[in-house]
Amino acid sequence: MQEKDTASKLFFGKKEIVADLFNLHLFNGEQRLMPENLDELNIELPKLIKDEVGQLKSDKRIRDILFTAKFFTDGRTDYLVLGMELQSTICKNMIVRLMEYDVRQYSKQYEQDNTKINPIMNIVVNLSNKPWKGPTRLFHLFPPMDESLLKFINDYCIHVIEIKELYEKRDLLGCEELRAMVNFLMYRDDLNKLTEEIEDRSGKTVLSNEAVDMLNVFLGCDIQQTNPEEEMTMSKAIAELKQRERAIGIEQGIEQGIEQGIEQGIEQGIEQGMEQGMKA
User: pTM score, two decimals?
Assistant: First the structure.
């Protein structure tokens, strides 16, 4: 699990990927947020808390991806903090986690400048192959309650992006490598369909080291560049994966054949010994 988390953060944390995902989420793919207008923030959000005996201790929360962003609209510049959480499993307490992240980030901003703070916008990318069924509003966690009371209680919503949604809108993505990765994540469990999809759409896409690492971790394989002078494309990566699977299949077949041969030899030896014993 830790390897998946690390590989995902390294790939999705690239500025061009962050900009592409937020442009899709906010502007239906219109390229209004440029990678050069993103600045990475410290993902550690420390806080001092008291333990059970009243002693102060450090309590740290770590974000997956965190950037400040500049949006230019009608001659005005808007500054936002953009957070992204990558989930390979469904997290049922994601709402509470993000609320705590936001409070710590707002507090950190306020300590630095108590005249204004920049708003925080979060997205959660569901990298699992299952639809998100966890709560997406704070109200979803409450027991049934009188509506006249609810209207005075602040809600909190999270924005979950599904791989299926990214796949359906992949033509609106500006980054080729992200489109190729979306194809992979969509059909990671169906190698034949993945091969067909890659050949049709993103076979020639050149993959970065971060993308290759993500393929390896999510597929549990070891795709390697056989010729360092050539660029690794998605087609080459999938072809190498299929070749390795065939080699493993052949090796397993040989091992099974040897085992069966040994078993048959033992059985024949026993039968022959019994026959010879009866004749004697």
Answer: 0.81
